[in-house]
Amino acid sequence: MNSIAIFCGSALGSEPRYAQIAEQVGQTLATRQQMLVYGGGRSGLMGVVADSALAAGGKVTGVIPRALVNRELAHPDITQLFVVDNMHERRTKMSELAQGFIAIPGGAGTLEEIFEQWTWAQLGIHQKPCAFLNVDGFYDDLLKFIRMTTEQGFTKARFTDALIVSDHLEDILEQFESYRPPEAKWGMVDQTDLVK
Length: 196
Description:
Elements: E1 3-7, H1 16-31, E2 35-38, H2 44-55, E3 60-65, E4 80-84, H3 87-97, E5 101-103, H4 108-123, E6 130-133, H5 140-151, H6 157-162, E7 164-166, H7 169-177, H8 191-195
Parallel strand pairs: 1-2, 1-5, 2-3, 3-4, 5-6, 6-7
Helix pairs in contact: 1-2
């Protein structure tokens, strides 16, 4: 895989460990010559992951809505920055650019991004892997909830099982290479049919 989308917080979080994780992610992708695709900002963990990838010689592509260019302080030094009209276009563009999606620590925006990509995989809009970098058990409670949705009949087990979860980024990236997508809910769907 040549490009990986990282979803993460626009804040640093309360623990120094979160910035360390973001830094390691950026460095690892650069070392593996995998382009980082992310939300285009320079604040919080978003800025850390981008800066660390750039410092390690990596390529970084950001996608940011026009209204957030000044508010999120669009990163001025990344390899490429796409400015789009809205949040939906941001996620769509990131989906087009990336071959896999990883959530590291973050809040509501991070969850929205990874859940949309996971939903699109279930619907057959794409066949790309989704993962949680679950360092220090950050996503334990969320993953427990996801399993409960399967137990209660709302999420097919094959989709829950397809989520990749690890506390080691290298493990996730290795699983991405051998990823086999589950059968989509209703066969492959053209995304444009869903957003008209």
